[in-house]
Design a protein that fits this description.
β4 and β5 form a beta hairpin. This protein has one domain: Methylamine Dehydrogenase, Chain H, CATH 2.130.10.150. With about 425 residues, the chain is mostly beta strands. The radius of gyration is 20 Å and the shape is globular. The N terminus is likely disordered.
Length: about 425
């Protein structure tokens, strides 16, 4: 899932953990980062997802409780660098014990953006939260130990919130009152149009207009300058997360005054910006005209859009939402590779690998942790300026098949998924 709260790394940590940028060209000696892996655990169930990390290494995400067992139901959490997960609850409260939520962010002050079910049936039968229940879905902010709902535009019923800056401004999207029969083509069950939005710290909503000629859009990331990123298009060709895989035809940067800027393409029709750093650099994903596959991209004001390429052998390489780009232009990502080897079938799920892009190339993060690591890293979801990374992966000890390793051959044999944190640990001098 993509849908998360406390966003701090001490200044001492930033000084003490060097960023270890790659050195020079291929063939020369370089310093390779190694990581300490921390299994964050769950809320008592079988799965958890680390979705956002702040500058202190605190994690926001979602996890299953003991009663949440279907792979969709989940509860938002915060993890403060140690100890158990802090469950954040839902907007449904005690009146909706089976409501779900997930969290993103967090910001420097310990606030987090969420999506949450309210417990009320959606009046149009939509499934805006994507939990399969067709309940009303609202964005929310966790702060001061309570949830505050973020209301949609007038006449709309649903909203989603994904990231927030240190000033309490929240990026996401919300429904309007415009009915559009083409919306169901992009997102099943969707009836109303939606617009990218920023909620100010007082909860006031502000529209981020789509590009000229487009009718809808959504925002994922925001920085402390108030710049936001996402996509815009028509209701028929934009699909909403987490109901569907997020997609749209135009990657967009909204300036602080709301002016939309088209970030360009890699030649294809799928273009989505997912994250923005404090320098105004943007990453995201776009269809490449060269191979037709989705590649991550990096956009800068000086150089424009740059193709980061695909991980070798992968049919899909993705920089997910919503803070996968840090100020050092490192990108957290994942790749999907075909299942190969003994035990694979045509119906076997792909092999997912968590990645780090830096210095022009990808590294499988599984190669930078101990060989006996308890978690096989499937996706890197967020990275901070200290190089700490959160995401999720398969718990190896829970795999029903151990030889050959199920996490490398048939990941369907590994039913337990846990959120993780990677902390830069040691350097190893070697040849690239």
């Amino acid at each position: 899932m993509k849908s998360i709260t406390l966003f701090l790394v001490a200044v001492a940590s930033l000084l003490a953990i060097p960023l270890l940028q790659a050195q020079e060209q291929q063939g020369k000696a370089r310093s390779v980062r190694r990581y300490e892996l921390v299994d964050v655990g769950t809320l008592g169930g079988a799965y958890s997802y680390g979705l956002g990390i702040n500058e202190l290494g605190w994690i926001a995400g979602s996890a299953a409780t003991q009663s949440q067992t279907n792979g969709l139901a989940q509860s938002a959490f915060l993890w403060y660098g140690g100890g158990p997960l802090q469950e954040l609850g839902t907007l449904g409260g005690r009146d909706c014990p089976d409501c779900s939520s997930e969290a993103g962010g967090p910001n420097f002050w310990g606030e987090s953006a969420l999506i949450s079910e309210t417990g009320k049936p959606d009046p149009n039968g939509e499934d805006f939260c994507g939990f399969g229940t067709h309940r009303q879905c609202l964005g929310a902010v966790w702060g001061d130990w309570r949830l505050t709902a973020l209301e949609p535009f007038a006449g709309g019923h649903n909203s989603q919130a994904y990231w927030l800056d240190d000033f309490g401004r929240v990026a996401g999207f919300a429904e309007t009152n415009h009915r559009d029969p083409t919306c169901e083509t992009g997102t099943p069950n969707q009836v109303l149009q939606f617009e990218a939005a920023i909620w100010n710290s007082n909860g006031e909503i502000r529209e981020l207009p789509p590009l000229q000629g487009d009718t809808v859009g959504f925002a994922f990331g925001i920085n402390n300058q108030g710049q936001a990123v996402g996509t815009s298009g028509l209701c028929s060709n934009v699909s909403l997360p987490p109901n569907e895989e997020p997609a749209g035809p135009h990657a967009v940067l909204w300036e602080a005054d709301g002016t939309p800027i088209n970030l360009g393409t890699l030649g294809g029709t799928y273009n989505l910006a997912t994250s923005i750093n404090e320098h105004g650099d943007v990453d995201g994903n776009a269809q490449s005209a060269q191979d037709g596959n989705i590649h991550p991209f990096l956009w800068t004001k000086d150089a424009g859009i740059q193709d980061l390429g695909a991980y070798p052998g992968a049919f899909l390489t993705i920089a997910p939402c919503c803070h996968t780009l840090n100020d050092w232009r490192q990108v957290a990502a994942f790749a999907a590779l075909p299942c190969t080897g003994t035990g694979c079938r045509a119906s076997s799920p792909p092999n997912f690998r968590a990645l780090l892009w830096e210095d022009g190339s990808y590294t499988d993060l599984n190669t930078l942790v101990a060989a006996d690591s308890p978690v096989y890293l499937q996706s890197a979801e967020s990275i901070n300026d200290a190089g700490q990374i959160t995401g999720y992966g398969l718990v190896k000890s829970a795999c029903t098949v151990q030889s050959p390793p199920a996490w490398l051959v048939n990941q369907a044999a590994c039913p337990v998924i846990h959120a993780f944190v990677l902390k830069p640990a040691i350097l190893v001098s070697g040849q690239r």
